[in-house]
Amino acid sequence: MSVPPATPNAPTADHALGQRVLREHVASVYSTYSASTLTHMAFVVVFGAIIYSQLRDPSLLFWLAGLLMADIYVFFTPRWTPSRPVRESAYWARKISRVVTLVSMVTAVVPWLIVPHNNLPMTSLLMAVIVGSCARAAQSLWPLKPALFGYTMPMSLGMITALAWQGDGLHLFLAAAGAAYLLLTLHAGIGQHKLLTESLMLRFENEALAARLGEQIAATERASEEKTRFLGTASHDLRQPLHAIALFGAALENELRDRPEGRNAERLMRAVNALGASLDTMLDVSRLDAGVITPTPQPVQLDALFLPLNHTFSARAEQKELQLRVRASGLWVHSDPQLLHRMLSNLMDNALKYTMRGGVTVTARERGESVWIEVRDTGIGIAPEQSGRIFEEFYQINNPGRDRSRGLGIGLSIVQRLSRLLGHPVQMHSRPGRGTHFRVVVPVAGAPERAPAGLLPASLAGGSAADERRVPMLALPGRVLLLDDELEIREAMMGLLRSHSIEAHAVANEAAAHAALRHAAREGRPFDLLMCDYRLADGVDGLDAGLRLSQVDGAAMPLLLITGETSPDRLQRVRESQVPVLFKPVAADQLLQAMAELTGAR
Fold first, then answer.
1. Do 285 and 160 share a structural domain?
2. Domains in the chain: how many in total?
3. Which tens digits make up the pLDDT trace of 231-272?
4. Which helix (H) or strand (E) holds 503?
């Protein structure tokens, strides 16, 4: 065994590895223990009978008896089994080496009993038997060098010395041949032992590396899960007070609209909306990962899609003194208009963000069965070593200080997720200092004879502020019941709704909501809408509570769910329930629009 025993200063890992390798060597040698011993006993009897019948030397009988007794001892002595502990491997390696050395030493006597008879056929038979035995034993004893040496050397040296003792040329030649064979056998055995040991060490090292890799992967997965839980909790906890601020701010803005102080309220709401947009960007990632966004592919006119994009980014390009060219193409593609709009919007936003001079160009060209939509810029470009990371969350080029004006670094991550969702491959080519161009490959579609209704949602059509101000003119509900365990949110929501002449009643738990519904029914003034937070106090599920309350007395009251949750599992559950949902912080116009739609649908 070439692996050295561990010393007090040797690394524990190396000692453990050496013990495992030694155990495998011992197991290999002992695997043929019983069969080899029985075969050797049978061969000794047959060979001894043949030699004795030819030479009639009584001393051969004593040798035969001694060798059989040695074999019987070997067969019945305690042996290694797989149940033996690893720490005993060295003991069993020494024992098997002593045992085979004993058998070899007893065998080494026989050449001195046969060679002096000058019987060349018997001498040749003896040499053939010893050489064959050494060759067979050497293969099975390669794993343990002491056993290899202990078995081959005594019997071989006994034969070599007995031949050389005769002194004539023929016997000297046979002795030299035997010595050469012994050296070659030992040299080959040492080489095979080294290869076997190295292969076992490599195998165990690979197993250890695989185990450590598995542990690291498991640790990484746990860290990722913990990060997801932390971000989900942090996002929810941030959204709660921000939602209250947005509601208070909207009510304040509505009250101060025609007063000088209204400008401060508008500035406050712009800051709140900017923070809400950042949180919504992270929410988009969670929604995409949760699979709660389902594309609705349809024929989309690219020019109708490009127009709102041009309106959205032209002012920003002018502010940075950049040229923005969004070229009409007359092409139609097959895609989801909202999700494709989001992909292109993120790409254009990214292009303008990293372009300091020159401009950004958006074009569309037909290529066979596909349309290449390309967003080109003359910005800073992307180095080859960074090209693989630009689609990672929160990764930004040349922004170590996390400048807030350059966003969160999630835009291209969303583009990649939307690319997989829609089946629109995204290709990127860039030269540092010369610019970048992204290509979105979209299936081509023929122009329909009649454009489908609602080709672009109002949210993509670039509605003006005046359009948003018309939301309160819609048919809003007269009475609303709010279920939310946060006092600040209840007060903020009450203030906002009352500023729009909506009678609102807010409660903190399901029991109070149930009592309010019964009281309203007795008065003959039922609520027109139930608004419910998803996460209530004491772990109560707001979705389940809302569904139960909406069916009190079979009234089937409309339910609007409001949540700050970003957990993929919970988002998927909300989607499956088909209950309308708004995500905190909710803009006042968006809230009023949803309330009007539910009231109108009723």
1. no
2. 3
3. 556 556 666 676 677 777 777 777 777 777 777 777 777 776
4. strand 503-507
